[in-house]
Amino acid sequence: MPDRLSALDASFLYVEDHATPMHVGGVAVFERPSSGFDYEQLLTLIGQRLAYLPRYRQRVLEVPGHLARPVWVDDVDFDLNYHVRRSALPEPGTDEQLFDLVARLMSRRLDPERPLWEAYFVEGLAGDKVALVTKTHQSVVDGVGTIELGQLILDATPQDPEPLDDTWTPRRQPNRTQLVLDAISETVQRPGELVENVRSAANDAAATAEKVVEALGGVASAVRTVVRPAPAGPLNVRVSGGRMFAVVRTRLEDFRKIRAEQGGTVNDVVLACITGALREWLLSRGSALTSSTTIRALVPLAVRDAETAEYSTPGLVGNQVAAYLVDLPVGEPNPVLRLQHIGHAMADHLNSGRSVAARALLTVGGFAPATLHSLGARAAGTFSSRIFNLMITNSPGPQVPLYAGQARMVEMFPVMPLVRNQALAIGVTSYHGGVYFGLNGDRKAVSDVDILAGMIEESLEELKGAHW
C-alpha cells in the first residue's frame, strides 16, 4: 500500500498559501573551530545523517482527481546541494543582517516538487561565527518516524566528519494509473473519504477542519470546550507575505531565581515576561487597557502518554504535545500578580498528571527542542485561529554544549510559523545556561517586533527587581 499522508499532514498542505507558509524554522549559531567548519563539512554531516531520516528524501505526490490524499514517494532526482545551500553576510555580519536574512528566508514557501525542507549555511558573521538556518514543513516532522533535522546533526561531543558513503537508491515512483488504482481500492473500503478528499483539496476550510478533528480526536476536542473568541487586538489581522524576526538573549539562572522566590515553574516565569512585554507594547501603540484586559496565548506543552509508564522517547514526542489556551493578564500592572495569575492558569496542566518535567525532556537524544517546537506548531494547527491571539512555544534544551562536527553551537533561536489572521508567534528554547527567544512577526502588522523583543528583557528585569 502507498505511504499516504495522514489527514493532519495533508491539512497543512491544503491550508498553506503565499502569506502563511507552513514550515517551522530554526537559527543555530556556531563558533568556527580552529580546524575550520565549512559548507562542504556541513554537507557531508547532513548527508551522513539522512539515512536516519528517509522522509527528508521523499516528496509529496498528488493523486489525480484528488481521489485520495497525496502520497510520500522517493525523490528520484534528489539533490542534497539544492536543499543545503550556502549564503554569506558582508563581513563582519551583524545580528541585524542575519535576522533580516532569516525573515526573508522564512517568508518563502518550500518547493512542493521537492522534499519539504531546506538548510542554509551562513558565513561572514562577526567573531568568526557561522549560522545554520533550517526550514522544515509541518507535514514532515511527526516526532516518531521523523524528527527535526536540527535534532539529528548535533552531538554531545565534537565529531570528525566521515567520508560520505551514500548507497541510497530511490524507489520507482508510482505512475498515474497505480495512484488511481490504489485510491479506488481504498475508496471501496472507505467511500466517505472520496468526497472529503476532493473538498479538502479545493481548500474547503470546513472539510479541512473536519479532517483535523478526526485525526487528533482528544486534542481537537478541546476546541469545542471554548465558547468565546479571543480578544480583538492588533495581533489579529490578515498577515502579509513578509516577515520580521527578532531575538532575545537571557540567562536561565534569572528565571530559576524568580521561580525559587515565587514558586511555579520556569515556564510560568517565561510567560510572565512575555505578558509584561506585550502590555508595554500595547500601551506604546495607544491601546486602552483595563485591569481585566487579556491576550490569549496558545501554549503547546509536552505531555506524557497516559498509557506510557515511563518517560520514553516515544512517550515524549510521539505526537504527545497538547495545546493549552492561557489568558495572559496584560491589563495587570503588577508583575508579581501577573506571574501569579499565569501560575494559577497553568496549574491545571501540572495537576493533570500528564505534564513532562524539563529533566525528562532532556533524556531525548539530540537537540530535542527542534522537534518539540515542530510538534507544538502541529498541535497549534488543530485550533481555530479565532480562539487565540498568538502562539508561544517553550521547550527546554540540554545545559551542556552540543556540536555539529567540530563546531560548538553557542545559540539557538526557534522560528515559529504564522497562521492566517495572526501576526506574531514566539518560540523559546533554553540551552547551555541561556534562554533564547525567537519572535516571528508579520512585516506590516508587527514591523516593530524588535521593540517588543527589547521589552521582554525589560519585563524580566522588572520581575527580578520586584518585591515579593
UniProtKB/TrEMBL annotation:
Domain named O-acyltransferase WSD1 C-terminal: residues: 318-464
Domain O-acyltransferase WSD1-like N-terminal, first and last residues per copy: 5-270
Keyword S-adenosyl-L-methionine: no
UniProt GO BP: biological process involved in interaction with host; glycerol metabolic process; response to hypoxia; response to nitric oxide; triglyceride biosynthetic process
Domain of life per record: Bacteria
Enzyme class: transferase
EC number: 2.3.1.20
One Gene Ontology term of the molecular function aspect: diacylglycerol O-acyltransferase activity
UniProt keyword terms in alphabetical order: Acyltransferase, Glycerol metabolism, Lipid biosynthesis, Lipid metabolism, Transferase
InterPro entries according to UniProt: Acyl_transf_WS/DGAT (IPR014292), O-acyltransferase_WSD1-like (IPR045034), O-acyltransferase_WSD1_C (IPR009721), O-acyltransferase_WSD1_N (IPR004255)
Listed GO CC annotations: plasma membrane
Catalysed reactions, semicolon-separated: an acyl-CoA + a 1,2-diacyl-sn-glycerol = a triacyl-sn-glycerol + CoA
Pathway: Glycerolipid metabolism; triacylglycerol biosynthesis; Lipid metabolism
One Pfam family from the record: WS_DGAT_cat
Similarity remark: Belongs to the long-chain O-acyltransferase family.
Protein known as: Diacylglycerol O-acyltransferase
Species this chain originates from: Amycolatopsis xylanica
